Amino acid sequence: MRSHYCGELRSGHIDQEVVLCGWVHRRRDHGGVIFVDLRDRDGLVQVVFDPDRADIFATAEQVRSEYVLRVVGRVRRRPAGTENEELATGEVEVLGTEVTVLNSAETPPMQLDEHGVEVSEELRLRYRYLDLRRPEMQQRLRVRSRITQMLRSFLDEHGFLDTETPILTKSTPEGARDYLVPSRVHPGEFYALPQSPQLFKQLLMMSGLDRYYQIARCFRDEDLRADRQPEFTQLDIEVSFMTEDELMGLMEEMIRTLFRTILDVELPDPLPRLTYAEAMRRYGSDRPDLRVPLELVDIADLLRDVDFKVFAGPAQDPEGRVAALRLPRGGELTRKEIDDYTKFVGIYGAKGLAYIKVNDWATKGRDGLQSPILKFLPDAAVEGIMTRTGAVDGDLIFFGADKANVVNEALGALRVKLGQDRGLMAEGWHPLWVVDFPMFERDAQTGRWMALHHPFTAPKEDQLDLLEETPGACQSRAYDMVLNGTEIGGGSIRIHREAVQRRIFCLLNISDEQAEDRFGFLLKALKYGCPPHGGIAFGLDRLVMLMTGAGSIRDVMAFPKTQSAACLLTSAPSQVDPAQLNELSLRVKLRA
Amino acid sequence: MRSHYCGELRSGHIDQEVVLCGWVHRRRDHGGVIFVDLRDRDGLVQVVFDPDRADIFATAEQVRSEYVLRVVGRVRRRPAGTENEELATGEVEVLGTEVTVLNSAETPPMQLDEHGVEVSEELRLRYRYLDLRRPEMQQRLRVRSRITQMLRSFLDEHGFLDTETPILTKSTPEGARDYLVPSRVHPGEFYALPQSPQLFKQLLMMSGLDRYYQIARCFRDEDLRADRQPEFTQLDIEVSFMTEDELMGLMEEMIRTLFRTILDVELPDPLPRLTYAEAMRRYGSDRPDLRVPLELVDIADLLRDVDFKVFAGPAQDPEGRVAALRLPRGGELTRKEIDDYTKFVGIYGAKGLAYIKVNDWATKGRDGLQSPILKFLPDAAVEGIMTRTGAVDGDLIFFGADKANVVNEALGALRVKLGQDRGLMAEGWHPLWVVDFPMFERDAQTGRWMALHHPFTAPKEDQLDLLEETPGACQSRAYDMVLNGTEIGGGSIRIHREAVQRRIFCLLNISDEQAEDRFGFLLKALKYGCPPHGGIAFGLDRLVMLMTGAGSIRDVMAFPKTQSAACLLTSAPSQVDPAQLNELSLRVKLRA
């Protein structure tokens, strides 16, 4: 039906007859001539209809925005002075010699031909098929397709087998709520949609598949915070007979190849690695944004004995932390700005935000500092803080003092916010691995041990003896890949011995009976020659979002859902016929 | 952890030190030496442990079938006379110099090292991780991965964008029952799992995506006949601005490339095409198996006036059919065999199976025929039948006389069965397109028109006028790709004009209100400049099954379900916590 895409015409096509199909992006009448910008997936080209061809001109006069046309015409150079440098096809235009209206269009509820016009996301989602016509959205879906293509080809070349795992499956305990699917054949029973293919990929290793990958749909029925979706996509990978170093090496090579191919960017080789402990100490986060040059500094030892409980208390608490965060040129901050940051850290549980402004330390010493808390700090503490933070005149030092997790969350978030607000972010891409995670963390409410990753993550071999004795000190063989403050991938070497798996279940307060009920098939499979294995999963939506510079994962999905997990385009979810529920042996019972 | 796969060692590796990881496929002790066949994804190699290395030998003595080992050793030529030609690695063996037991194994409930042992499918599914270790199953999953890889690379190269569509969506009316997913956030409302991404891919065309593909999971809650699965996979494709000929040309090029790449087979170029009418006439089926050389022959005109109601009735009925099927050398059939075929066609609703044995037509004419029905047939009819079927001495002619659909189904199935039973099947691959389908077929019970494909299939442009007048005569722009009697792909050009879509809904007895409720978003989208578009979907499981020679789609899926839609490995579906149902505002209400 066509010979070329609109967007591919260049001066090399001049004098060629072309057949184009596309949408009327804009129609202008000028000097008795009709100009139509015709748009397709590849871009725009200007089509000219002259009045001396009366029938064609008459048709062209009828077309409106978003009409679908088929145009036959001849490519010619635009008259001197009318070239459009902003358009890839701007040197040429097409003189229309035939035109067919393939379809008409009502006036769209959102304009597609202006950039400045801000449209509500609700309208964009409701008319997603119009929103997706915008070049920006087309580009994102196209890059997404190229990213998956490149990842697949890397893995294909490295002997990974693309293998599908079930969507209708048994509840997999990743910690979130499952979506359930009632069974008609087995009344009263339910499938669950997978939160990840975790156990199936482990079973594939026990099946001798050796290297598995899948671009897998995952489902979590969570209350949708910020930028989550009820269904999302991960690049899921598992291998046998590899150490974590071998696997991490291969995975970072894949990500380097991806960035080189798609963005022409060279990532560091090897990727830097940080231990969990160091990441928390320096950045207050296990997914540190290395673009921000600020770092947390521990000062508890300086403040243990000061006469200021806010500091001394956490400084003496084995689970407490007291840390400083130096903001270069932070002396410029206004009282209002400091108040706003105090509110900001409040979100993360911090009860306040102490600070010292360094006005003139160089010549005035202690008198050159300005702070409501200065009076509580003896000279030695002040000097220690100044030395350790390396603060100079014009800086400001923020403090956090609380349970370690509160300080880490508050100062960790503040660090990133300051980086953004104060224009301190370095350019470019700053990936790293975080390693040596603890096996367990204690649930704040129940005091019980919980798996930091998931219950199938292997402990370090040389710490197996510590498991029951000091679980909190035991480290796992997990690793996360972090890029510019976002965790893009996470994985681990898995437990491949039944006895170890049982010990972990036991530590996690999963009774033998529960373990049998939920993971009986796994425990059984571990008896029959399970190879050492491990894997990783990359969050594809987030990766594409970062690589396309999109502001939300919704902008890199064709048909995302709203925060209330609804599809505004198709009106899902919706009510169903009572007969359908009857077949499923179900009744709706709304709560009062 | 290893240097080579077991299966890749050849004489070129002799004298190299290698590190292997794998499973003990078989252990034999012979002449004081231990032989272990070590198995991994690539194959088997023989490892030898000599008693002169006491510690290694002691370890080797402990290993049993399916133990997981890491072996360091030196490759050497097998002693003359002990080579194993059946093994790819059979020229060499590895002298073990180190061995580590990475994991032990209990005695597996099914043997993996013998071919002849037949194991029940139930056991295979329950211990799928053991079943998948068998080289045959490994090979199938590997070929499946290569097939998807090749299909993707063809489509990537041709500008198709791999785009994901939602799994949690609104009911799509493909005719089968939906799987439902209760919403927690919207109590009493449900998502449906997609029976196909049909409407989303059409919306992507309206979004200007131009060329879309996806290897898409689809779900149908059907009573599982023969070889169906509740979830299955299709290669889903849609394009804009292409005629059916352009699209079919591209798709057959893809399938030709696939068969060339994977099987080194050259399929015909172009693929032959049959109209639906001709396929039904000659083969009684719209997915004819062209490997069977038998064809149906119409003989109603010869029998319209015979004094035998069984033939004359259907011959006079406008909806009837009387057809003959000649079986060369069918005179050999025993009475018992003919009885069995009579029962066989009964499955398809045929009330009997008349036949004529051609014993000696050449010299004896009518007296040389043998048949219970011969007495009803006048000479002219007999001569007509003999001429038209081309029967010769030794043949047998079967007859079908009933409503056309009964004759087609019965003789169509008999044709294939005879082909199989009598060794008449041609070798190789016999693909074709079936085209010119009717738009509608009449529901036998209600007498209402139903869409033969789906309600979004476009009618032929030059038959638009016939729609309301003679719907039964109206043909669609649909096309099916058929391979060796299996429909491997089906698609159509879609309706891209709102008015036509509304007329089709109307003809299908979908009221305006129902249309608005179920397809309102589609009808609305059609208003805003929908391009002409069409597509196709290939059944990936079936395609892989055919290409690997597997007997069932269950054998080309890693974790299939049983006929009652259960996963024997993980015990899904299963009961859930009442609290979960409560959160979903649901009660189970078992029927008495």
What is the CATH fold-level name of the largest domain in chain A?
Answer: BirA Bifunctional Protein, domain 2
Largest sheet: number of strands, sense, barrel closure of chain A: 8 strands, mixed
Shape of chain A: globular
Instruction: Kindly provide the radius of gyration of chain A, computed on alpha-carbon positions and rounded to a whole number of angstroms.
Output: 30 Å
CATH superfamily heading of the largest domain in chain A: Bira Bifunctional Protein, Domain 2
Let me know the number of strands of chain A.
23
Structural classification of chain A: alpha+beta
Distance between the termini of chain A: 59 Å
For the record, what CATH class of the largest domain in chain A applies? Alpha Beta
The average pLDDT score of chain A comes to 95
User: Largest interface, with Cβ-Cβ < 8 Å?
Assistant: A-B, 121 and 120 residues
Strand content of chain A: 15-25%
The strand order across the widest sheet of chain A is 6-9-10-22-21-20-17-11
**Unreliable runs of chain A:** none
Q: Count the domains of chain A.
A: 3
EC number (chains A, B): 6.1.1.23
Protein name (chains A, B): Aspartate--tRNA(Asp/Asn) ligase
Keywords (chains A, B): Aminoacyl-tRNA synthetase, ATP-binding, Cytoplasm, Ligase, Nucleotide-binding, Protein biosynthesis
Subcellular location (chains A, B): Cytoplasm
